[in-house]
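Task: fold both queries, return tokens.
Query 1:
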Amino acid sequence: MGDVQQLYDQVDTDQDLYGDWQREDSLRARPLFTVLWLITLAVIGVMVLRMTPNGLDGKKYIPVVVAFVPWMACVSAVTLVCALIGRRRALAVVCTLCLLTQLCWHWGYIWTSDERTHELPSVSSLTGGSADRYARVMTLNTKNGLADAQQIVRTVREEHVEVLTLQEANTGLLQRLAAAGLGSVLPYSVVAAPTGHDNGGVNVLYTAAKPVSTTGDLIAIEASSVPSACVRMASRTVCFGSVHPFSPRPRNQGLWNSGLDSIAKLQSNARLFVLMGDFNSTWDHASFRFLLGDRFVDAGEQNGSWFHMTYPSNVTLFGGRVKVPSLVEVDHIVHDRSVVVGDLETVTVAGSDHKALLGTLDVEG
């Protein structure tokens, strides 16, 4: 009996030790999960800002923070894994709800309900003629005209681009593009007239086909003027525009809202539009979604082909040893619902702080 009692005593001792170890592990993990809770609360705060309505989403640093909403899903996913490993049920539930909400917001980037985007021809098969229904289009913010003109022309040739829009262009860039031979592939152009509120330069639009009409000032806007060219494609006339509203920096926030609202007025215009450029806003900004309204769609959000981040580009840290990835999707191809834009692609262009965004347009999709 004495041996049996000793065995029971030993088991009790082992259980006490195991309980002590568990308590010690819990105490050591407590600071970690406190940090994870704080991170989750910060994510929730960003998500609340994302729901700020149009007109109020341009206050202070709200638009800058909201631009990074897509990355909150990554933060929530990592925190959820840690919560599951640590058996923190409440934290896991909150992270799951955050993650599901973020996935719902960005479902169009994951899955497309428009099967027409899968039926577009390959880039290599595009003929480059205006008589058909297809056209490869491209937009690029040239960073005060510093983008590599030869690379722009080379990309236009390789991608069979028929419509090119540029932002922040200047006389020097236009001359370099001409010298690089852009006129031989895109002979028609519309250059917006300089104004007192240009942001970084003027907007420019090039086309392969002769436009049926052009204007250097499509809408009244407190930003660089919007040049437009209407081109006949198959049985339809498409009006292309190069846009660049102000960025939402604190000193520009009133101009940022008013610029996007000015573009939104095109919803009542009877013409068929494809608007391309640096919108200085993302799908998560209420002002951008207001611009789209019920009429326009953002090609990136409709394609189900993930995000096409365009800014920043060509940025490095620590003397060039660390390359900064593109983090936000501020360059867009916005179009009427009756046409299709797919096969999206980004291209890094030397000299610019934005990537070029390309897509294939089907006007009879």
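Query 1 returned. Query 2:
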Amino acid sequence: MYHPLPLRPAAALRAATLALVLAVPLTAPPAAYAEAPIKPAALRPGDTIMMIAPAGELNETRMTLAAKRLREMGFEVIVPDDLFRRRGYNAGTDEQRADELMRAFRDPDVDAIFPGTGGFGVTRMLHLVDWDVVRANPKIVIGFSDITALHLALAAKANLVTFHSPNPQWGLGSDSNLADFSAKYFWRCLLASENEEEQGFTYKLPKKNGPLVPLAPGVGEGTVTGGNLTLVAATLGTPYEIAADGKILFLEDVGEAPYRIDRMLSELRLAGKLDKLSGVVLGQFRGCEDDDDRGGLSLQQVFDDYFRGAAYPVVRNFAAGHVPLNATIPFGVPCRLDADSLTFEVLENPVSVR
């Protein structure tokens, strides 16, 4: 009879490890995506909003006006004493900005976190964030542009629903306040009074925006993710990169030449982020048309090369991001995109009503 020799300790450990690995189903989903994203509590009058500056420097006049308008709506507003600090093109050092974000998440009296503006700097401080604290204290987080990096990180590390939306400096604090269109979807997403009865809503674009433009037909459903294309591309290969499979991808940008849009879309494609989508919603990409005479591709040609004839629905010209009419999009919430009827709808309320 064959009697196997006893394994040495190191070999025994390797064998035990291999047995454990083989015992785990290879199809098990990653823990981060096994559960539905966490919806933060809806806002009610009397709740507290904290202004923060995680990216670029802030305009004190605009931020003061935004705080005044929020208080007039019945909210308490925290404006940190050092909110208007500056270090070059950032609102302070990486440590200052990360600490401010963590103060907002740790403070039990803070119900919503409003980054003042985008600009540049969020990616510089993500490694300083205590994600255990964030996961334990889910709160409303809004913003667009550079705040895309924060949206992606909150999805990857905390599984939190967040809101791609106007911000205090470029919306609530502007001379005209939020345009009616922008205000409608901002408060529809955030307020308890807007989320107690109706479930979900359909975006209705104003005539001056123009209709959605189809690039690929069909209907798709999935949670929505994305944001500013530059930031989506910049976070590839990091712990905060976008999880795109099965989702509706929203992308927008501003002031980028078509060849730069082309390069960033190619990065997404090479990373496999365009392979298994449920749909794509493209913004208006204001200022992204090349006006030189070098004979380059137009922005439409670039979009056609990547999305025309895709296996999922694709539309262009949605009003969100770096445009005057800036609809709020709840990232992490199920949506439906119909490129045949040119409709984009949110299927569930994006906040929990206490």
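Both queries returned. Flag for query 2: The two ends are 69 Å apart (CA to CA).
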